[in-house]
Amino acid sequence: MNRSVLFRTYAMIAGVSAVSLFVFSQQFSDAALSIAVVAVATVAVVSVILGALLAMRASLDAGPAEP
What we know:
The protein has 2 helices and no strands. By secondary structure, the protein is mainly α.
């Protein structure tokens, strides 16, 4: 698996999620905030899965590893 692609993707997901949660916590009340947190978490989980698939694809496109 191409770990550099995986780590960059995960760092981007974590950064966007953190900024989104910070902004939502400033804008929404308790009820709306809980819905926003669930929405951000759902998008983050789907993005993590897609990031892993993209890293695997990049690894397959690179060909066999040289010893």
